[in-house]
Amino acid sequence: MLTFLAKNLRWLATGLLLTFASSFGQTWFISLFAGEIRETHGLTNGGWGGLYTIATLASAALLFSRGALVDTMRLSRLSLGVSLLFALACVGMAVSPNVVVLGCAVFLLRFCGQGMFSHMAVTSMGRWFIATRGRAVAIASLGHPVGEALLPMVFVALIGTLGWRVSWGIAAAALLLIVIPLLAVLLAQDRQPQGEAAAPEASAGLGGKHWLRRDLVRHWLFYAILPLFLTPPFIGTVIFFQQVNVAETKGWTLAQMAPGYVIWAAVSVTFALIAGWASDRFGPERLLPILLIPMGLSLFLLAPAETHTTWFAVLGIMAMTQGAAQSFLGAFLPRVYGTRHLGAVRSLQTVIMVISTAIGPGITGVLIDAGVDFPTQGIGFGIWCLVLSAAMLPVVAKLRRELT
């Protein structure tokens, strides 16, 4: 492992930085400001969730049309352009005089952060590595849990002392003064890494071919695994987006709940690395039936929870799925669909993920306004996870026959 890290440090660090910086556009980060945003702009839970849904769906549409740029544009140029747009989105959040500007800012945050930054990172790992693809994706994806561990406590403190608008200005400054210069240094050698772990020009997928987006939507596998692609981002988004409702329902404070992010991050890191190793060793398809089991079990704990320490258990168990899912998807897509058109193929998966995160806040927000609090909703989501896990068993059996 140390030799692998040493040989590929520049490229692994690029992926890690991109996933870490994507934090500013992730739901869990934006949700830290939810109370202040709703109060400032006079939005209900349903209104805020609806605006978030519309903005995120719009970002998904743009990502679908621009995601293939990862296949055709040098990462050094693409990452610079997206970073500048990302910083502009943070400035938009900081000034947002009305709901229209707020919606535009959220749209850009979602497109740049959850969309392009994560898309660039994982697609690059999938293209650059073959034999160690799972581990490369796992290491690059560590930026997500590191951000989840560090940034909530920092920005909760900043919001309390400087206000929510100034805090968004600090996020913009971090992108301009730290992220962009670091990316420029890391991508000064914008090429594939050398050595035994490096990928050749392209690696074929299922049936010995390089799949296009139009090919995969005509194949049975796409529809069989679509519910699994949708579920982790849906639930992972709403658990953080509706954390204010959880706090209000249970009588907890966000300060009491904030340490849960550290637990989430630690467990996510651990299971991302485990899943990366398992994907390389056994094949990522073998993880399909077990990915959602921890997430499903964790949701059954939330409704009866009485103390905020149970929140830590919920996040810790759920993080097993979230960490493993990142590594799984990064290894699964190039194994099944090849790497020549990986940017275009993965942009479709990313769009599906973004759509899932878009509809989650809207649906759960409407249910909350109707009197169904989020902890109660979690019971239904938990049942769904366990049923879907069982449904993946015949999918794996059929897929393995086609892969051999």
Automatic annotation (TrEMBL):
Transmembrane region(s): 49-68, 137-160, 166-188, 220-241, 261-278, 287-305, 311-333, 345-368, 374-397
Protein name per UniProt: MFS transporter
Keyword Protease annotated: no
Residue ranges annotated for the Major facilitator superfamily (MFS) profile domain, each copy included: 1-404
Classification via Pfam families: MFS_1
Organism lineage string: Bacteria, Pseudomonadati, Pseudomonadota, Alphaproteobacteria, Rhodobacterales
PANTHER family, sorted: BLL3089 PROTEIN (PTHR11360:SF308), MONOCARBOXYLATE TRANSPORTER (PTHR11360)
Keywords: Membrane, Transmembrane, Transmembrane helix
InterPro entries according to UniProt: MFS (IPR011701), MFS_dom (IPR020846), Proton-linked_MCT (IPR050327)
